[in-house]
Amino acid sequence: MKKILLFVAIIVSVTTKAQVSSVSLQASGLTCSMCSNAINKALKTLDFVLTVDADIKTYTFEISFKQNSNIDFDLLKKKVESAGFTVCAFYANLHFNNVQVNAGEPVVIQDKTFLFVNTKDQLLKGDKQLKIIDKGFVSVKEFKRNNYMVLSPQTYHVTL
């Protein structure tokens, strides 16, 4: 019981002021511009998505969001999968305002919990790009290489 209370206290104490500004994701399985168009249309159906810019040469999608929106990373991934493709790289671009990151300690940003891995303790300032390395957000090969224990469905393992 004490461990649970300590964990909750840590999460509450490291809730931060940071803002998700955009997401860049790379999809696999695309073969033509129609594939890219299918993903583009699927992503645009989300009410928190403002714009989607596709680059067919690199299979990447730059997604910006409406102001004051609740951004759902899992829903973005599911939309790509519902179009018949998989996400092989997922980067969230955030703006940090003096956020202390310590290895092994979760950080709550908006309504999401991030666990920084393979990172030194540091103070984050300005724009940073976080790579989500959980299953479904990276290739199967990369996930097997990283394979971190899942703390909860709402915790994302990330690297800088």
Write structural notes for this entry:
Helices cover 26% and strands 42% of the residues. The protein is α+β, with helices and mostly antiparallel strands and 160 residues long. The chain has one domain (15-159): Alpha-Beta Plaits (2-Layer Sandwich), CATH 3.30.70.100. It has a 9-stranded mixed β-sheet with strand order 1-6-7-9-8-5-2-4-3. β3 (49-55) and β4 form a beta hairpin.
Q: Percent of residues in helical segments? A: 25-40%
How many strands appear in the DSSP assignment? Answer: 9
The tally of helices reads 4
**Major sheet characteristics:** 9 strands, mixed
Radius of gyration: 16 Å
Offer a quick outline of the entry.
The protein is α+β, with helices and mostly antiparallel strands and 160 residues long.
What would the keywords be for this entry?
160 residues, 9-stranded mixed β-sheet, 42% strand, Alpha-Beta Plaits
Outline the secondary-structure elements.
Elements: H1 2-13, E1 15-16, E2 18-28, H2 33-44, E3 49-55, E4 60-65, H3 73-82, E5 86-101, E6 106-109, E7 112-116, E8 122-132, H4 140-146, E9 155-159
Parallel strand pairs: 1-6, 7-9
Antiparallel strand pairs: 2-4, 2-5, 3-4, 5-8, 6-7, 8-9
